[in-house]
Design a protein that fits this description.
single chain, about 250 residues, mainly alpha, two-stranded antiparallel sheet
């Protein structure tokens, strides 16, 4: 492994470990508590796509006339993840985005989609992302999370976006959460089966192959520039910390 990548991982490990040990995972024991989790987590499922699309715009050619830019490995990583996130399959092989699949899971379990749908409607009506977030009827920590994401999307250079994507937005799903889902599915399969499929599918498609390419992307974009590596480290830590605050909204 690239020595600088290893150093970055060591630097962010305390924040990552703290997030994995967040009390939210212990507090979700019932369907009602899973509903509250999903009503907050859906915002992270949604805004991930804007971060991904921003990287696609920066690291691949999405205009005409087309010309090859950047690394073919990076183009492959970004385009493959866009394909999987935007047009994957549900349990019945119907094409669907992960965000839409997540909303199906919420409706099945009885969680409210009012807040996230309100945000979609505001954006489709032409409201700026800043104003749409401000008008959200939700916890301040959710708004802070979204504002951080779009600060990165709209203002951060590619190497910082790549670091946040790679280290700050990976699915931090501890084993105990997977075991909890097994328990809830056994108790209420008609309520939790889609959510379980979503979690399993996301872990499957974001496996080792994508992780390896994402690390290559960060290494390529940071190169031998010590300042870029430091910026990548700081942004990754901030992304992990802001996710912890998002989980605080669930525990509250």
């Amino acid at each position: 492994m690239n020595n600088r990548i290893q150093q970055l991982k060591i630097a962010i490990e305390p924040s990552r470990a703290q997030l994995l040990a967040h009390p939210v995972y212990h507090q979700i024991q019932t369907l009602a508590e899973l509903q509250k989790f999903a009503e907050v987590h859906v915002f992270a499922v949604w805004d991930f796509m804007s971060l991904l699309k921003s990287l696609q715009q920066k690291l691949t050619c999405v205009q005409t006339p087309w010309v090859p830019i950047g690394s073919a490995n990076t183009r492959y990583l970004i385009n493959e993840i866009v394909l999987g996130e935007e047009s994957d399959v549900d349990a019945f092989d119907n094409r669907i985005s992960h965000f839409e699949l997540y909303q199906q899971a919420m409706r099945q379990m009885g969680a409210s989609t009012n807040a996230i749908q309100g945000l979609m409607q505001s954006l489709q009506a032409g409201l700026s992302i800043e104003n749409a977030i401000q008008q959200l009827n939700c916890a301040d920590s959710v708004k802070d999370f979204l504002n951080f994401t779009f600060k990165i999307v709209n203002h951060a250079p590619a190497h910082v976006q790549a670091a946040v994507f790679t280290f700050g937005r990976e699915d931090l799903i501890p084993d105990m959460f997977t075991r909890l889902l097994e328990k809830l599915v056994a108790e209420s399969p008609e309520k939790v089966s889609i959510f379980k499929y979503y979690i399993e599918r996301h872990i499957e498609v974001d496996g080792g192959h994508h992780s390896h390419l994402a690390l290559e992307m960060v290494s390529e974009l940071c190169g031998e520039d010590a300042a870029k590596w430091k910026e990548a480290e700081q942004a990754s830590i901030e992304a992990l910390q802001i996710r912890a605050k998002l989980w605080n909204a669930v525990t509250a």
